[in-house]
From TrEMBL:
It comes from Citreimonas salinaria. The lineage of its organism: Bacteria, Pseudomonadati, Pseudomonadota, Alphaproteobacteria, Rhodobacterales. GO terms for biological process: iron-sulfur cluster assembly. This is Iron-sulfur cluster carrier protein. SUPFAM superfamilies: P-loop containing nucleoside triphosphate hydrolases. Pfam families: GBBH-like_N (PF06155), ParA (PF10609). Binds and transfers iron-sulfur (Fe-S) clusters to target apoproteins. Can hydrolyze ATP. Homodimer. Keywords: ATP-binding, Hydrolase, Iron, Iron-sulfur, Metal-binding, Nucleotide-binding.
Amino acid sequence: MTTQPHSTSAPAGPRRMIAVSSGKGGVGKSTVTVNLAVAMARAGLRVGIVDADIYGPSIPGMLGIPGNAPPAMGPDRRVIPSEAHGVRVISMAMLTDDDQPSILRGPMVTKYLRMFVSQVAWGELDVLLLDLPPGTGDIQLTLAQSFPLTGAVVVSTPQDVSLKIARRGLRMMEQVQVPILGVIENMSGFTCPSCGEVSHIFHQGGGAAIATELGVPFLGKVPLDPAIVDSGDEGIPLIVGHPDSAAAQAYCRIAAALAGGPAETGGVALPFDWTVATGIGKPAPVPATGGAQDIPCAMDIDAAGLEILWVDGESRIIPARDLRIACPCAACRDEVTGARLLDPEMVSLAVAPTRIWSVGNYAIGMAFSDGHASGIYTFKTLRQMQGAETEDV
């Protein structure tokens, strides 16, 4: 059942933005995303899905949304998402014909991704799920850098090769400080409808084991069910077509866990865009809560440099010139060797940050008075820089 597109006026960001990822293809990640979304919607939450798999979009078909129906544009020039089964959706499949490939280079992919999240009239949402393509490439990094994700869910089968690749995806999310909300083990055993015997086609227990090994939650396992395939092909999610099945019940339990999980990572409110001269956009300070995370609680700038207070209560100052010389962008550092390309003697003693903005959950970008504005400074790097001399950074 497909309803009319949801119309709304002013944008209102989702309370929780959750990425659903996988290390490799073929693990059923999009099917999991659709059923989790519908389960949340049936529980009373306002839910949206961004089909971030630009090259292989599949979400609209699984929800029964026609792929050849381009979304409408609202009076505020924002795209109105389609809606089915209580879930609002935007996807590249709505902008292209079924047999037309999306032949796009990296910058255009980035443009579409940002448009799908920030230029769509989502209205009030409790949860926005981002269905990522497999791997750890441009799309994953773009979303991690552009938006303050609540966290990521990693989907894997119990198969050893799938779990090994899923581990890489987990590590990638950790490096950009996206909290890991948990691991889902999909295709976890098949129950014979005649005799009731369970066959573990892709082994068993691997998802729980990797979650334990990496110290992240294990959200649950979804058994193999032929009805899942039929439901996806028919555009009727399993949650709707077979709500009493074991797989549907597993989806409901996982959806409940995600909907009620922690929504805050601590530190200053994200995102922010701070114009130093006027103070506009400066992130409001929050109390230090203890712990050893590389997350800032407050930032300030004076003649001495950039002062950062961290969640564990530590606070030191990084001189502005040190920040400029330590810029990690490709113009200032060799991308392969890491060797410095910028001559420190060419950096003015009076150089200073003019604008500071958040990059995802894990870094800040800085523009300087000499016109340079392409460096991304991770929180970990800033923590290590504090107190360091210029020649050591």
